[in-house]
Amino acid sequence: MAVLRGINVGGHNRVPMPALRDAVGELGYGDVRTYVQSGNVVFTAEGDPGPGEVADRVADVVANAFGADVPVVVRTGPQLADAVANGPFVRDGLHPEEAPTAFHVTFLAAPPDPARWKAAAAEAERFVPDVCALAGADIHLHVPGGRYSDSKLTNAWFERQLGVTATTRNWKTVTVLAAMATG
Q1: Is 110 in contact with 31 (CB distance < 8 Å)?
Q2: What range defines the domain where residue 61 resides?
Q3: Which of 6-41 are b and which e, b meaning 16 or more Cβ less than 10 Å from the residue's Cβ?
Q4: Residues 51 and 81 in one domain
Q5: pLDDT along the chain (183 residues), means of 10
């Protein structure tokens, strides 16, 4: 599964989902499906291509086919299923499905440097009640007001703090993508 950041937002980087499905399929990936208009593409890949290779290939086809130079982050079906079933807030006894607009996952292109994460986590404490927790290369967010757009814990903030590409999806999208990628 690939998540693209910054497409079809405010009229910029327009990428029609049927055309995106076709373009990703032309890369040789199978069972290509999209979810909503924000650049969520689920597909199968033969062999064992690394996530960086897949992300680069998808980013290249999006740039060439649509003129959109956007970051792409890749996750496997099992990684998505684990994020839903074993995320830090779930382990802490919270139930994201009961308040899905309050929970989000920021997917990082790679796990962050531990020292940078420690500094970012300490800095993020300024933004309570919004909180974040790291699980591998995923940052789980709890935004109790339910308005991610009002949070300071954004893709840009994480990228500045961690030096790693980031893109965020709401809990409903993450759960749907996990079901699509493992179903």
Answers
A1: no
A2: 2-74
A3: bbbeeeebebebeebbebbeeeebeebebbeebbbb
A4: no
A5: 90 91 96 94 87 95 95 95 93 88 96 98 97 97 90 97 97 96 88
Residue 167 belongs to domain with CATH number: 3.30.70
Q: What is the pLDDT of residue 30?
A: 94
Residue 49: φ, ψ to 5°: -70, 140
- CB neighbour burial string for 92-119, b if at least 16 within 10 angstroms, e if fewer: eebebeeebebbbbbbbbeebeeeebee
Q: Are residues 56 and 83 in the same domain?
A: no
| Residues forming beta bridges with residue 106, ordered by sequence position | 139, 168
CATH code for the domain of 32: 3.30.70.1280
Total domains in the fold of the chain: 2
Residues 83 and 69 placed together within one structural domain of the fold: no
